[in-house]
Amino acid sequence: MNVLIAEDNSNMRKLLRQLLSGTGTTIREAMDGREAVQLYASVQPDFVVMDIAMPVLSGIEAMRRIISAWPEARIIIVTVMDDCAHRRAAERAGAFAFFGKEDLMHMQDYLLGTILSLRGKPLPLQPRCA
After folding, report:
1. Number of domains in the chain
2. DSSP class of 57
3. Residue 130: inside a domain, yes or no?
4. Are 28 and 2 in contact (CB under 8 A)?
5. Which of 15, 58, 81, 127 is the most exposed place for a label (fewest CB within 10 A)?
6. What is the tens place of the pLDDT at every residue in 30-71?
7. How far apart, in whole angstroms, are the C-alpha atoms of residue 73 and residue 56?
8. pTM of the prediction?
9. Residue 13: which residues within 8 A CB-CB, separation 6 or more?
10. How many angstroms separate the Cα of 12 from the Cα of each of 36, 49, 88, 127?
């Protein structure tokens, strides 16, 4: 199982790696949206864990480009921008799930459950906004 972490903050990338440790996954990392698109093209990981606010190319735009080329892409947003506007933008761009960075334990449970179900289809995005 391959996972791509797209996050510009090195400490957050390290934390996300730690949350996924012990799952038997191969983890690759991108530091900006453009690099995320390039790595997705070469690796086509099973999941992408992506921030929204990244340099060069935002996570939303990177997600649009990835899903445009690979509609089956599973992109999970993990961001501090946990508000209705960003949730809606992520949903429109094709996010499978959306987690605030303060909600990392739920995100970890979600990812681990999906990984353990042997590439089972992740649960659909469930926005909290009306």
Report:
1. 1
2. S
3. no
4. yes
5. 127
6. 999 999 999 999 999 988 999 999 999 999 999 999 999 999
7. 21
8. 0.84
9. 5, 7, 29, 31
10. 16, 11, 23, 23
